[in-house]
Amino acid sequence: MAQAAIITEQSPVTVLSGVGPARAAAYEKLGIRTLKDLIAHYPRAYENRGDIRLLSEAYVDGKSAVILTVATEPKVLRLRSRKTFLKFRAFDDSGSCEITYFNQDYLKSKFPIGSVFRFYGKVERAGRRYTMSSPIAEAWTESASLPTLCPIYRMSDGLSQKQIAKDIATAMELLAAAACIDPLPLDIREKRGLCTRAFAQRHIHDPENPQMLVIARRRLVYDEFFEFALGAAMTHKRSKQSGAPICKSVDLSPLLSQLPYRLTGAQERAIGDVLRDMAQDVPMSRMLVGDVGCGKTVCAAAAMLCAVQNGRQAALMAPTEILAQQHYHDLAPLLEAIGIRCVLLTGSTTAAQKRKIKEALATNDPKKRADVVIGTHALLSDGVDFSAPGLVVTDEQHRFGARQRAKLSEKNGHAHLLVMSATPIPRSLALVLYGDLDISKIDEMPPGRQRVDTFAVDESYRERLNGFIQKQIEDGGQVYVVCPAVEEQEEEEGEVTLYDVLSDGSLRDKPAPLKAAVTFSEELQARFPQYKVAFLHGRMKSAEKDKVMKTFADGEVQILVSTTVIEVGVNVPNACLMIVENAERFGLSQLHQLRGRVGRGTRKSYCILMVGEGGARGETARARLETMRTTYDGYAIAEQDLAQRGPGDFLGTSDGAIRQSGGLTFRLANAGEDVTILTDATSDARALLGEDPTLSEYPLLARSVQALFDIDAALIS
Ligand code: ADP
Ligand code: MG
């Protein structure tokens, strides 16, 4: 036999035995191509099989672990369809349960009378009769230590939990030799008290106990931050070189005279900062931060005008199609009125249109040239080239992440960069995340804004809330309802997510049941048959999302139920009621963002924080909701957020969407909550680069960082 190819982290999943084209395609749907991707497919939650319950106390909505003694001999029943049924009874102190397995006669001998098993599955109850159908059965003895936390993976069609777990285990085994070499320098690992990468990977997938899970997670979070910090520092180095287009002569009056309002002092200051930067030959790297609704867009328009007046082009990139359209709709008339040619380029622009736009951007003929392009990350694709790039603006920066930012500035050489964000980030964090950016704050709202009255309520208020929804809609308003996580498989009672594992490894008493967006939107539709309820979640394709969002923006839909995807700058001035379900699961800054979705028009607006059962227990939870009720300043809220939620408390990490909002997309890490690890990793990364700027001594690290940044660039083009 020829020598087997060397298997590395970059090998495709098909090197695993049993993974053929079909399963590879299923993995592909989850974004998994290589063994490395597979190992980084961390569980979305864990079944808590260590949480042994009596039959009488089994969860109603989810699966439970019960310890039962077999009481009757298993019988095989044959159905006419030639299917078979294995059936027996088993009991605990609280009752007896009928257990059935379909088409698995061979299990007959597995369950002799008197034997004891840990059964895991859904316990159905009809009166005093319990039944379990095809539970997982593990022989139970006092001494045998069965695993308590079993991983639950995000799946796609054509995969099973078992297969994923097995493939991951095989992948780790195959790579075991390579895994002995830890990419992290030993002195850092020792200084920070981190476990090895191999240990961390093993225990995140198959934790021996909750403590191990915490230890494992800490290492993996550190790695995510560390590699990010290395990559960010390495890619940003170029940005201070001279060679930027000097944009000195500027006259904003043709723009400002068209506005129906006067700029606020804060807007004037921000624009002043921007124009001063753009007059230099060092490219501007500035972030404009200001609460939702403070008027950042017009500042961007002023910067774009400045670029064009100096013979340059400007691009404005928004994270979603709908936002790009909104900007185009708002800005194009203002700019066109001054004779500035504006084009819109998004994923849904037709090929013919795209060709024309690309030509208009690339031509040197000033008569044909497009001066301003507004779009989505379609702007980053190959072939979109500017003949005279002058300024790049990104809106709602936190959705892009630093990797895209790197790509953007790379693509446009020495263009000035203006980044706009509505996420107020505490200073300590901003330094780490955006250390390379100068910051202008818009800390003043346009006059006449109404405050969004905020209330924290619990389930007992539900009927009154429904009445309130009705009243708002009858008055012509629209309603947002935001729920936490939505997964293909809903989180069930009895499951443990990282949210439930506290920093000392203990588990939260009783995870609060979640309002799942899907079911909840159905419930609401049933409750309000006279209105249209639409549903939006993060796993929808972006075209689909935009479509739903548009029906809401157009007023066809009165109630929009969603996960946090609406958080980003969408403007529906008619929306006047924001309801956040399981508000205790959201970070304060995030609640503040959500609240900013309403109160954008003339309607009196409200934000109702609905607290899940048991959710408001404890000082912190109460203090947090109280902060929301009494504080309306995004910065104050962000600082509080950081102070109140210790970095050890993984609140909110169970939901990918929530995790994103902190500023970056990481698999496990949460920039808001894991702030100590973030700070450590960043300072370690800087120190390391100080000694070895190209990581020549650390080829493994260098490769990871490279892959991290390249992969992302490839994904977005
Ligand atoms: P954001 O900072 O969230 O992007 P926008 O730029 O979308 O905010 O502005 C929100 C709204 O406020 C827009 O309708 C805009 O026309 C309006 N606006 C902006 N600046 C002022 C101002 N100085 N006075 C009154 N209204 C303003
Ligand atoms: Mg905006």
In short, what is this structure?
By secondary structure, the chain is of the alpha/beta class. It is 36% helix and 18% strand.
What can you tell me about this protein's structure?
There is one protein chain. With 717 residues, this protein is an alpha/beta fold. It folds into 4 domains: 1-45 and 153-179, DNA polymerase, domain 1; 50-146, OB fold (Dihydrolipoamide Acetyltransferase, E2P) (Beta Barrel), CATH 2.40.50; 245-442, P-loop containing nucleotide triphosphate hydrolases (Rossmann fold); 453-631, P-loop containing nucleotide triphosphate hydrolases (Rossmann fold, 3-Layer(aba) Sandwich). Helix content is 36%, strand content 18%. The strands form 4 sheets. It has a 7-stranded parallel beta sheet with strand order 13-14-12-15-16-11-17, with helices on both faces. A 6-stranded parallel beta sheet has the order 18-24-23-19-22-21, sandwiched between helices. The longest helix is centred in the N-terminal third of the chain and has 27 residues, at 210-236. The protein is globular, with a radius of gyration of 28 Å. The two termini are 41 Å apart. Residues 486-491, 646-664 and 711-717 have low confidence and may be disordered. The site of adenosine-5'-diphosphate has 16 residues, from helix 10.
